[in-house]
Design goal:
Elements (H helix, E strand, L loop, with lengths): L2 E5 L5 E5 H13 L4 E4 L3 H8 L9 E6 L2 E11 L4 H20 L2 E18 L2 E6 L10
Parallel strand pairs: 5-6
Antiparallel strand pairs: 1-2, 3-5, 4-5, 6-7
Amino acid sequence: MTEIKIDTEGAGQVKLADEVIAIIAGTAALEVEGVAGMAGNLTGDIAHMLGRRNLGKGVAVEIEGGDVNVTLNLLGKFGFKLQEVSESVQRRVKTAIENMTGLNAREININITGILYYSDNGGDRKPLSKKIKPRYNES
């Protein structure tokens, strides 16, 4: 666990664990329309199956001085413009980190690692697959 100390102008110190920044970033990313979820690793997926929700899943935080670099691994929703979704995530995450911590969010890197598309059965939206089948005939 990495910590960052924030000077509070003589009133003491505030220490933030990088996990806190990861949770802020992950939560902000999930608020953006077009983001289906966070892509994590095997350990995070097992924890999720056991009922433990990890809000920092799929987020890597790097702290350099007073600057924060964040990399998010996201699942997009089928039908959304991924470039626009990514830019919205970058703006939302940067704003959330800077407003909540006072730190400079220097880089917000986005990796779209999969796409989810859904079926609409009576308003019950269920993920069908991470794979997209072509909608055209190959001739």
